[in-house]
Each structure stands twice: as structure tokens, then as C-alpha cells.
Fold this protein.
Amino acid sequence: MAYKRQIDRLPIIPKDAKRHNVVCHYCIVGCGYHAYTWPTNKQGGAAPDQNAFNADLSKQQPAETANWYAPSMYNIVKQHGEDVHLVIKPDKECAVNSGLGSVRGARMAEMSYSRQHNTQLQRLTDPMVWRYGQMQPTSWDDALDLVARVTVGVINEMGEDGVFVSAFDHGGAGGGYENTWATGKLYFGAMKIKNIRIHNRPAYNSEVHASRDMGVSELNNCYEDAELADTIVAVGTNALETQTNYFLNHWVPNLRGASLDKKKAEFGTEPVEPARIVIVDPRRTVTVNACEVEAGKDRVMHLAINSGTDLALFNAWFTYIVEKGWVDRAFIAASTKNFDEALAANKTSLDEAARITGLTVDQIRTSAEWIAEPKLGGARRRTMFAYEKGLIWGNDNYRTNGALVNVALATGNIGRPGGGCVRMGGHQEGYSRPDYPGPRPAYYVDKLLIEGKGGVHHIWGCDHYKTTLNAFKFKQAYKKRTDLVKDVMLTAPYGDRPAMVRAIISAIKKGGLFAVDVDIVPTKIGEACHVWLPAATSGEMNLTSMNGERRMRLTERYMDPPGQAMPDCLIAARIANHMERVLREQGKAKEADKFKGFDWKTEEDAFMDGYHAHAKGGRFVTYERLRAMGTNGFQEPAVDFKDGKIIGTKRLYADGKFDSKDGKAAFMATRWRGLQAPGKQAEMKKWPFLVNNGRTNLVWQNAYLDQDNEFVMDRFPYPFIQMNPQDMAELKVKAGDLVEVYNDNGSTQAIVYPTPTAKRKQTFMLFGNPNGVQGNVVSPGVNELVIPNYKQTWAAIRKLSDAPATVRHLSFKSQEYAV
Amino acid sequence: MNRCARTIDAGRRKFLTGAGLAAAGIASAQIPVSPAKAAAPAARVEYPSSRLANIRDLKIDEPLPVAYPDADAPGVLIKLGVRVQGGVGPDGDIVGFSTVCPHKGFPLAYNKSDRTLNCPGHYSRFDCEAGGLQVWGQATQNLPQYVLRIDDKGDIHAEGIDELLYGRLSNVL
């Protein structure tokens, strides 16, 4: 049977409950919520004067009510050492989500650490060290002393290039301005670490280098633009599942025609209609289905291209649109450069693009018309371009990104209402750091680790075993190297610190690696580490981030971190303090002095030292001001503080000035060159199945907590692989069967989800799942800037077993809404 | 719906005078407490036993609108034609569900072709053959299902619900 909580009533929030601003910490959309807390021995009542809603709760509440919360929105947690009731429910007044809660964010309370309700007891409560052959608890001072001595020891032996780092660079949980600043100040300020990578890619680089190189920051519009656009172009983004409430609250109204009044108010006499949408994705997703339901099939064009051929399509759009004269000449002249060069370089005929992409000439022509053909009376068509991992983790990332921005620039769609050329995003953003001291292209850190480079590895909220490319081979090499250190740690008594450090350094010299994992839960890569440092997450600390329209908010601390856990920024500061102490002890005063400036007591200290002092417009922003701005916050950059409000920026480049020295956006030459990453072409020829991959509604940047959540693990105890039923018949597998996916890179597992809409020999596997790592079969091939290519992966599939017992009660019906 | 509403009314009347309340009374009598204190409430709400229909009223794949535990809580009884986990009746194929989407409270519609309940609000869908498992969707719980009992006459009684209903902080108001 399906998992049921057997909860049939919940405590009512009393009138005097404390209310805190909360922004969902899972995805980039950053939906607004409120956390209500009150003492465990109190409760509200059904009468209007007895509850926080001022509502008669003895009556059934209507659809979309603000006066209800699900069991997943409730828990009992610690606050200042006392047990309190906690309700985290979506905020109707937040412009982002207007009261909608996603299947992820609406579980924030249930996903909190509660010893009272036994939720998330996996959370790390104490610093842990490898002692007597297993991880054992210790004090902060003891763990940090070991980390500092080994790190200093490695620097003494190998220089700072011996220190390897993996660190988040984003906002939301496992990130935020406080924490990126602190780690940045430690590794790029106090030290100059070049061997550093980001949580989801093997080097320190931008996922959208091309757009930035062209002078176009990737989050340049606002969510309202999706309500104003004539046409939305969605490339490699499955927004219903991975930016759920942005899609539901801002795309759907436009597709339904519910934003026509808003368009008329904004655009006056310009003709307006409900939106059309062009979706570029080799796979039919639930997003395609929802668009068809809302807009009608005749206003939705799903371009199911051959995997990895987006670039050819964009170049053909560019060429055709210019040929037809559907470009914004005034904008091109005033605000851009290199148009003619790019046009000449990228010239691609409709026929040529049809041959490469597998689309028909008509599809390409019609989609170009939807994008750029002027409206009745000659008004410019307002088109918004949105892209995400299908492009970012796809073939020839740099050029493909540039090719799409070319189309947006040519049609004058950046900095204008109803336009934008934006990534949809993963996590919220929250980047504030000194500059990366390494080269461009940055070092391919995973490769160096596999090759035996480096002596110590600091890991911040990353899990290479689960979410990297070439993960199978990485894991094998990493385990071998860290085991060398684990083995020698068994030879010295833990309490004899000098002997222990000597033993560790000696193992490092023989190819070993000492690994320190800062995280909130035990991770897969943590299995190989020697020290775990327990971090606090959003809501257990005050945390600032910005969402996909640069909307910055403060999530206020509403509960205590588990045990001794601390905010990452303070962990970084304490590492710095200990390194300073150890260096002084060794008589290296000059080196020690570099670690000054980490005397923060709170996350607010880190915020003031970082964002407030360094970010563009940061001087207008303080915790107090953000608190007053609630869940709507302001859109970065801040430009003023007036009448008690931080004044932000709705759209970037509204003045036609871009991020370059001369203020002009640069068109880019982006010639098609087939499958770019080394080895991909041969892999495609050798293996029968495309293993496309990505996320799903239920499991999306929350697997680290979901692995301990009954509701989610009941639905997907293993990652699924969507497969055409005829392919299943050939492989002799049934729904729910456990299969092995394998190629020369490695192997992994998944359960079969029959999917009649899947093309033959084209599967789709859930990415980044702890119980079946898709990255195991992804080749090490990257682009010229060390951006991975997860999407173009080919492998074979074979049956391992019939459906495991935990899978047999599940449903494998179509995920598409149908009535 | 008239017939349906009558059965619900009967159920509610029975609830208001019924055995569930008596149990609480006995508990308070046995435990000496100060008179100012109310009786300890039961850990779960007391559900009415409501006659929703007779098995003769059900045809395969034709959902019968009902309401439980009161008239403001719409639901359906469905005879699926195949034995399912949690199904009742001689063929083990009768199930009952709330038809209020546990995400935002929109009314669910039955799709005969694959025996799912679908939400027009945000596209969530629930599998009637798998205990209301959310096949895909926004709700943070699977679909509330009725605990059903069939008596000697073939009358179908609802006697409980396994998840919190949308729009109420107590399943029985």
C-alpha cells in the first residue's frame, strides 16, 4: 500500500505564535513561506479569536486557502533549547509563489531535525573523526586542531597547491552569501587555492561562461516577464518539475490567457494574445503536457531534437530570422557588436539544421516565426528565452549557450518587458567571494585527484560519489587514496597528536589523501573521509540568497541546529582561527597573519564582512532591512534605501548597457562541430541506449534529506529509468524491475518505468540519486572550459532482478495529467 | 447527490449520539483528575460510521460520488473490477477516496482509462489501484483513502480516513 501518515488532525497555530520569514532552500525559485513556532504546551483553537488566521476552523476551508497546512508542514523542534511546535507554510503574499507550495518546499518542516518526531535523525550532531577504525564523535577544538595541523602540514610539504577544495557556490541550503563569502575568504583570501571545484562540476568555472563573455548576465529578467511574453522559448528545461512554482504561478497564467489584462496595461495598444511556447527537448516531459493542457496543442511546439543538436537549431533560427528581416536593427546598432561576423560564421540553412536535428524544415521555420515574426501592425514580438541543464550539461555548452543568446540579442529581447535570455537555475544564488586565483580554463580537479595529486581535500556540501561525472572511476581512486590514510591512522594512538599528524603526512607522501567533509548529513563521499564537521542549514541559521529573478531575501533562524552543528561560515572562520594558531606555533607569523579577520561570532558578522562590504549595492543591505522586506525582499542589485525600503532592479540592461567595457553585448561565432566532448561520438556508436538524465518533481536537490523521508523513499526507493515499452520487451524487463546500466565508464542501477512517449533506444534516468548514481556511466569528457557533458551518455542495459519488495506496491502509470 | 447526502446525514446523527463519545466518558470516570481538567482527548479523532452505498449501486469504473465524514468532504466509491490492496467487497475491488486534492483543494476527476484521479489545478494524479499513491504531483501526501466495511446486506460503510483531508485541521470537524 502507498505510504500514509495516519495523521488526522494537527495542532492549531495560536494567535500569539512567533512568525519568521522563510524562503524555501531547495530550488532557485525561492518560494516564500512563514515558519510559525509556539510552545509545546499551548495550542490555538477553532474559533476565529483563537488562531493565527482569524478564521473559523470548525468549517471546511475552500481551495487555495491560507488557513490550512499539511502534516508535512508540521513538526516539533528545538528553539533556544526548548521544544516548540513548528509549522512552515507557503506565504500567499509572496510574489514568487502566491501561496503555492511545491512537493519539496511544503515538506520543509517534516525535513527538519526532530528528536521528538524522529525526523532527519541522520543529521550530523558532532564533529566526527576516524578513530579506532570508525567515525567517532569529538569536540570542535579537537577536530579543528587535526584539520589545521594536517592542512598546514600539507602546505609545508607541497605548498598551497596541495590543498584541494570542493565547495558549493550557490544560495539556499548548503550555500548562501554568508557561507560562500566565508569559504571564499578562507580559500581565495587567506590562501590562494587553485585546485578547487564547485558542487556539481569538476572545476571552478561558470556554467554559462558564454553568456557572461558576451556581456549578458544569465539572470537578466524578472518572473513577471513570463506573464508578459508573446512567446516563451524553453530549451532543455523541464520547468514544471524543476522550477515548479515559477512555472505554475507565472508561465501558466500566460499560457491560459489569464495575464492578458496585465499585458494590455503594460503594452497599451500593442496586440496581445495568450502565450505560445516552443519547447526544445529530446524527451516529452510533463512540462510539454501541462503546456498543451493550458494553451492547447496548437500553441505548443515541442521540438524533440536529436540529443545534443541544439546549436544547429539556434544557428538556423538566427540565420532565418535575419534573412526575413525580423531583427531589432536599432537595438543591434545601439547596444551590440560583432553582429555581421557572427552572422557570417553561424550561417546555417533550414535544410542543414533539419538534417542535424532530426526536425522538419517546417518545424524550424514555424518556430522561428513564433519567435520573431512581427505582430499585427509590425510590433516587435516579445520572446523570452529560458534554458537550463539540457543546454548547460549538454553538448558543446559554451557555443550552444552563445548561440541562444545570439537569437535573443538579434530580436532585441534582453532588458525589455516580456523578454530575457535566462538560465532557469538549480539552487538559489548567493555568491560573494574574492576572485578565484586560478587560471582559465580552471584545473580539472577530479582528474587531478584521480591522478594522485593533492594531499588534503576539504569538501563543503558536495558529494562527488553521487553527483559528478566519471563517478565510478573517481570513487575507486578516491577510496584507495583515502584508505591509505585511514590505515595509518590505525597505527598511532589518536591522543598522540604529533605522532598522528606524522603518520598522516607520511601516508599522504605515499599517495594518500586526507579528507575533511563539511556537511549536514553523512554523505556518500563522507564514507571515505577522516573528519566530518556538522553544519547548520537554512532556518537553523539566518541565511541570505537570491532567486532566479535576483530576488534577495533573508530566511530567519527559527530553530536550533542539531547538537553542536554550526553555520558553514563559522566553521570556515574557526578553521582559519586554528590554522592561524598552528602557523604561529610553528613560528610562521607572516603566514599566520593571512588568517586574520575571521573573528566572527555570528552569521550576521560574516554577512556584514562579505555581502554588505563587497557586493554591488551591498551597502544598502542589512539583516534588519531584509527582515522588514519580508518574503518579497528586493531584486538585486540594490540601488538605494528609501522610505524604509531597499530599492532594487527589476530587469538588468533596461538601459541597453551591458556588462562589457564599452557597454555593448557581443554576438558570438558559434559554428556547429558535432559531438564536441572527447569520446562521445565513439560512445554513441558503441552503446545502444541514450541515457538522458535529469531530475524529477519529487526528488530535486533534496535527495540528501529525502533519503531519510518515508513519503519520498516509498515512491522512489531507487532511481527510475524511463524506457519505451518495446525496448522493455526486447530486454525482457517489466515495470519496476531492477536493471543495470553499464558502459566503459562504469555501471549503475535503476528501476524500469515504462514510458510509451519515450523514443526507441532513448532512456531517461533520474540523476544524482544515492541509490543508483547516474554519473557512474558518464564519461570524463568535458568542453574547453571543463564543463561536463552529462546528457549525451550512451550505455547498455540488462536485467538484475525482478522488482524489489519495496517497489512492488508502486504505480508505474503515466506521469502526464489526463482527464 | 440527494441520496448520498441523506446517508451522510444518517452517519452524522449516529456519530453525534454514538459510541465513540461514550468511550471518552468512561476514561474520564476511571481516572481521578481535578474537575477543572477536561477528559484527555483520544489520540485520533473519532470517525463516524457512515453508510455510503450498497455494493449493488456500484458499476465497474463508474465512480459514485459520496461524502465522508460529512457533507463538506466529497469523495468517491469506485469498483475497479480488479482486486487491489486495500480493496473490499466480494471481489476485493471496492475502494473509496477523498476527491479533494491534498495539494490545494481542487476537485479531482476520475480518468477511467487508467483508473487515476486527476487534479485540474496543478496536474497531480493519484492511482486508485495503488492506495491513492500520487503517481506524479504537488501534494506532500498520498490521497486520503477511506477505511471501508461491508455488512451482511452489502451496505458499504466508511469508518475512517488514513491521511489529513485538505482544508481542515481535524478530519472530523
